Amino acid sequence: MLIVDYRVDSPLLMAALDRAPNTTVDSEEQYLTETGEIRWLFWAEGDQQSAFEAGLDDDPTVTERKLLVESGPRRLYRVFLTDRGRDGTTFPLWSELDIVLLEASATHDGWENRMRIPDRETLARYRSALRDRDLDFQLRSLYREADADCSAESQLTDDQYAALAAAYDAGYFDVPRTTTQTELAATLNISSQALSERLRRGTATLVREVLLRTRS
User: Fold this and answer.
1) DSSP character at residue 174
2) Which residues of 46-69 are buried (b: 16+ CB within 10 A; e: fewer)?
3) Residue 20: what pLDDT?
4) Please, are residues 151 and 162 in contact by the beta-carbon 8 Å criterion?
5) 173, 184, 143: which is closest to 1 by C-alpha?
6) Measured in whole angstroms, how far is the alpha carbon of residue 185 from the centre of its chain?
7) Closest CA to 111 of 76, 81, 140
8) Among 15, 59, 94, 209, whose CB has the most other CB atoms within 10 angstroms?
9) CA-to-CA dists, residue 68 to 14, 43, 179, angstroms
């Protein structure tokens, strides 16, 4: 199996994210209904909820938004994809190609995805499907799962490693915390939103590579 990290210029939620550029979206689940519609659940995090929700109402890729869960700055929404939204996803092909979506997140700059794909032939078919939808594919990394160095540290990006190490050293994970996200972001010379994204993705990687891999 191959693990593929890539960027794609899908239009999904881009109109909404342009309205709320401090918002980050993480895909939770997609379902195909009995009537052929695609129901999509995703998390949104940021401090521009009103602007983001107004953008959702006007976004041509989704319809019928519903807020399901609100937990601090994170909110779980359910939407249905419009015809324009369906053109921006390859979801109906995943089961046919035995593809598994591991992670998918977006900001107003675009989507970053991680997938498990059986082999290079399947990857070529998947890239062809993206081209057919006029979706630009930018490969970031590709490695064979069975042969990869599976240490947790090796799976972190340099930015994620730096953010997690700095957060630990500064007492961000202490109870109670001895520093704030804003203060920590300032020491790294990045925005609070960028820090939040690096910490969440880095933590998710550690959980997957240490806890879940060990359990399996």
Assistant:
1) S
2) bebbebbbebbeebebbeeeeeee
3) 96
4) no
5) 143
6) 21
7) 140
8) 59
9) 21, 10, 31
Residue 148 has pLDDT above 70, yes or no: no
Q: Do 54 and 21 form a contact (C-beta atoms < 8 A)? A: no
SS (H, E, C) 39-69: EEEEEEECCCHHHHHHHHHHCCCEEEEEEEE
Whether the pLDDT of residue 134 is over 90: the answer is: yes
Tokens found for residue 146: 């069975």
Please give the model's pTM, rounded to 2 decimal places: 0.67
Helix (H) or strand (E) holding 167: helix 158-169
Query: What single letter denotes the amino acid at residue 201?
Result: R
Q: How far is Cα 116 from Cα 106, in angstroms, rounded to an integer?
A: 19
